[in-house]
From TrEMBL, chains A, B:
SUPFAM superfamilies the UniProt entry points to: CinA-like, Molybdenum cofactor biosynthesis proteins
One Pfam family this sequence matches: CinA_KH
Homology family: Belongs to the CinA family.
InterPro entries with a match to the protein in the record: CinA, CinA-like_C, CinA_C, CinA_KH, Competence-induced_CinA, MoaB/Mog-like_dom_sf, MoaB/Mog_dom
Gene expressing this chain: cinA
Native source organism of the sequence: Metabacillus halosaccharovorans
Domain MoaB/Mog, chain residue ranges per copy: 4-170
Name listed for the protein in its UniProt record: Putative competence-damage inducible protein
Amino acid sequence: MRTEIIAVGSELLLGQIANTNAQFLSKELAEIGLNVYYHTVVGDNPVRLESAIKIAKERSNIIIFTGGLGPTKDDLTKETISKSLGKNLVFDHSALESIEDYFARTKRTMSENNKKQALVIEGSTILKNDYGMAPGMALEADQTIYMLLPGPPSEMSPMFKNYGREFFQNQLGIQDKIVSRVLRYFGIGESQLETDIQDLIDGQTNPTVAPLAADGEVTLRLTAKHTDEKTAQKLLDEVERKINVRVGDFFYGYNETTLINEVMAQLVKKKKTIAAAESLTGGMFSELVTSLEGASQVFNGSIISYTNEVKKQILHIQEETLAAYGAVSEQCAKEMAEQVRKLLNSDIGISFTGAAGPEQHEGQPVGTVFIGIADKDQTNVYALNLAGSRKGIRTRTAKYGCHYLVKLLNEIE
Amino acid sequence: MRTEIIAVGSELLLGQIANTNAQFLSKELAEIGLNVYYHTVVGDNPVRLESAIKIAKERSNIIIFTGGLGPTKDDLTKETISKSLGKNLVFDHSALESIEDYFARTKRTMSENNKKQALVIEGSTILKNDYGMAPGMALEADQTIYMLLPGPPSEMSPMFKNYGREFFQNQLGIQDKIVSRVLRYFGIGESQLETDIQDLIDGQTNPTVAPLAADGEVTLRLTAKHTDEKTAQKLLDEVERKINVRVGDFFYGYNETTLINEVMAQLVKKKKTIAAAESLTGGMFSELVTSLEGASQVFNGSIISYTNEVKKQILHIQEETLAAYGAVSEQCAKEMAEQVRKLLNSDIGISFTGAAGPEQHEGQPVGTVFIGIADKDQTNVYALNLAGSRKGIRTRTAKYGCHYLVKLLNEIE
């Protein structure tokens, strides 16, 4: 099956937005085994759209359209397709009802134009729009499958995920359920992780194992297919186990979670409070924690000691420590964590000090980082040498702090 | 002139990346008056690429290709185009030299494959690649203009901006220089700003005035065309003056600047140091400041007082203030700014307190915000009622802090 995605909308040709719909659909289609051969973008112009349809018919068996289903005069996708197929547009009563519902629910006034959105190509299967007014459509004609989806990604993606995908699976007799799971890793480079599990990546066809690296983290996307969803989940469990026997030390969570979410979950679970002393990271760790709802349950506050004076006056770091070892040192990180824990009356104190660049700090090369974590019994200090930009070093430092915190919190009662 | 952009690359059809190159080029082309009628994406497949070229030739006068200029076997763009035009590929010596240079500079070993990148279509104008190895090409054949650009955006965009645009201007006899200027505003909504200058937006054709809103800020992009660049700049000056007579109170800077950049520039210029007491924003302001190189010149540190205990113990906010007015109050914001200024021995103290949501804080509705700014002579407190998500409220609070700081710093010597 040769698939083509046609996006309709002059805003794309003016460069106001990127065609992220085509990206989303291409990924989704690859998962159900459909190969995309072309993306086309055409403006809100019926003549050019008609010619794009003609070209697509000749080279593709499946044509998916996004955009041009709105209520205005510019929106001509279904009008142009129905004309090119020699089919009529008819009112779909359930679509009309859900449009009326939508207006009632959002307390807006419905215009005559909006009714136009309930017109559908005769004989098509309606794809419900749970987040907007334009229904989607799918039909087979002249051995070609046509699918029409709305343009706004917030409407298009759930429509495809919930209804469009199923249409293809039914139409093409695909019995398999497809289940995915994302495994998240931190503290290991992409190439190291890939080397460690290369045989599993190469040898696996069901589930497939696809690595992706971003922002200092590595994820593995596992995708299994089976007619029975439970069996598909079991296939995922098995390969996950095999993978984590080798790289489980760096695993921190599933799917959409983040390191700071895991820190928060552990702090809540273990009923611990935390405070931070930030130098290098300048508030980044605190900002991450407080970006989460309910942060006040576990986070007392921080002292951002960007100068040695503040380290001495507010954090009460010993003059001797700074004189003998400097601010970028294991000793300073240790005292910072212990002091902030005590001063802010918290169960845990975490500290960040180092040289973010672009210049050396106290003679320490850029990327030298110390992270301290203190609880009532002990203090651990972690030394790192990070490469990269100022931004990269700061971001990864904050993430390493989360990573060590999760490890420590996992170990305590 | 009908323009088409053809992106070559299977990674696009697999949904691994979005076609942001087409977006970038569409914007750039619109600025020099070229209308884009189609975007096409095709994989690394010579047969399908050839057919895409054939279709494009029939419907477009200008065809711009991105991608497929790399050293691997998959990279076939120039091979396929030269074949379809009946032209040879020849070694370009300056391209070969700059490839050799590139390897010498980055201390990597050059492979035989890399030499392939110096092959160009005979008779084409070479577009220099300042950020990579693959040279771009441009040529006219059969009344059609062809331009070949590399796929990585970091190579493609500077190549087009610096060389590609000029090629079109010369080729099409466009005498006009095009100059743009972005004006940045904060503290005024998009619809208000548009209402205030609607007649200027509608009435202006040279320069054009295009508003855009993002992250609580509004920008106006002014674009002027003239054969003489100085005259084009004067046209921009004139319309800028007209606009800022009306909305200049909210103007804060040009082009790529940010509010925090303006704060930093003012602090450096006025030789002032700053410290922050953050409650609501939880470190966001401090993180913004310290994300900038040279922050240590002006930033002493912060106290993030997320609990009342920390406000009392570390910031020494009076028990009576918290009892009588609460932490989310003008009085508390005032004391926080004054205390952090004094404790951290800084010229300026800034404070942020409020209710970020999702729940009320001390009975104050979500979005209630107080920002205090103290210097040696006085303390100003600003009260805001912000709508939106937790993230939106926190982000705009930090930005409002920057906005007020810039206003105050502008006024002092």
